[in-house]
Amino acid sequence: MRTKRTTAAAARILTSLLGLLLAAGIVAVGQPATAAAPTPSWWSGDCNVNNHPGSYALGASYNGVKACGTTMNNNERLVRFFPGAWGEYEWQCVELVMRYLYLVHGIAPYGANGKDVVNNYPGTLLAKVNNSGSSTPSPGDIVSMSATATNAYGHTAVVTGTSLNGSGTGTITVMEQNSSASGSRSITVTNRVVGGNVTGWLHANSGGGGQQPRVRSPPASTRSSMAAVSTCAGARQRARRSTASTATVSRSRRPAAPLSWTSGCRRGRRTRTPS
User: Fold this and answer.
1) CA 72, CA 62: separation in Å to the nearest integer?
2) Domain hosting residue 102, numbered range
3) What is the pTM for the complete model shown?
4) What CATH number is associated with residue 65?
């Protein structure tokens, strides 16, 4: 009997201690998913490997959405999440973020480089928050990072966890593509100002990143005759795309010149579909 009382008392002490640590922001906090996002309907095999040879899961995932990569250099594949959607290149950073927004929140892809994902968001389901020191991102939020001297197109990622003290100093963890080998890394936060060139983030107005996925029909504006492509490159440099691959991107009547970039992330061409 005495052993049971001692065990119960120890459990109460540990629970109280954990509550104090959480309140003080000393322990890491991750927001678990209430329901895993569905597997992308356009995939065949893990990370679409059957359609995109060389693809594999990097290891990071959140709310059932995986970060993917490829073993083959300059091997990108254009995908559209639904007919008429903005095109995304696997496995660029923007593709991951747009896939997360679509599968978890039902938000259709839109045109943006990595640095523009937050500012270009056209909806109201998510709130745009500036990295001004007034607040910090939560798990499930989408961050944009500014251009640098070596990356003119910026970067974007999904926040998967936070570890902050009472003054808002510590780290956040993000899931990303085309940057870290594992698809996950930490970013320093000081007095509620997030480092790593983060300019701001998209924050869920209801339920946060762990809310029940709501995959809705894409808005009519995304079914227009205009096809567009968003691309993002992070740390790894991308070489010139072949003419054959570019033909998939361009829907003009005449062959378009090959797309090319040296580093960073930028939007692809936008051409009117044949009438």
Assistant:
1) 25
2) 46-272
3) 0.71
4) 3.90.1720.10
